[in-house]
Amino acid sequence: MAERTVARARPLARPAWSWRRHGATVPRLAVAAVLSLFAVLPLVYMATTSFSPVGNILTVPPVLIPPHPTFVNYVEAWTDASFSRYFFNSAYVTMGTIFLSTLLSAVTAYGFASFEFRGKEAIFYFLLASLAIPSVLMIMPQYLLMKTFGLINSRLGLILLYSSASIPFNTFLLRSFFSGIPRELNEAMQLDGVGEFAMLWRLTLPLSLPALATVGILGFNGAWDEFVLAVTLLNSPAKRTLPVALMVFQGGHTTAWGPLFAASMIVTVPQIVVFAVAQRWFQEGISVSVPQ
Known about the structure:
mainly alpha, MetI-like fold, globular
């Protein structure tokens, strides 16, 4: 039997680096590095200062790595300043906002993506037009609406307002994603006698996890950081969210920089963790949902 000779494919050689080909990227990388440094350095300084004893805070030159790190500032902010209660309030409002806004946005987007009805596009663009209204102009109508329904000084009122504010953009993202799902899958389930709501829960939503993660992250950032509505509606100190509590804490502790920076880290770290964990789904959801 004749032996077969199999030619082994040679790996492609990587092109040599040349200034003419890659030189244009060097200035852009340098600018990006400088901008990243300006963005990260204040966060690093805030983090290291939160672990610094009182004697090492605001020294000249500043100390980025404290020689004797301590958790005293966090203990004071978490217990003495009641930031544990404010953290729970923010978590409650944020989780409620994510659940309600994602649910309503998914149902609305599914209707726009799957059904044909008179005035469909006009209604959709009218919904998007609401994004052009400055949120500051809506504070007084929203306050009067919440007062009418008895939701002043209520965390439920914040959840409803945050959810309503996020629905238009979430609907835009989810509709684009839902429209990209092949209709053949829906038709196959219809032949099996599956209803529209069942198709939404069993087919569309499982295939749209990146878009849902994007909507969830946007809802988290919007509710966790929101200050104006929270300080307007919440009168009771026991119901304050973290941004409002941080403002009050700063006003009462203008010289206690250690606990103040520790409280700021308590507000900031959850956002960093959530985005770091869900970054892959966020990028995929944005790239697929936004029309090219």
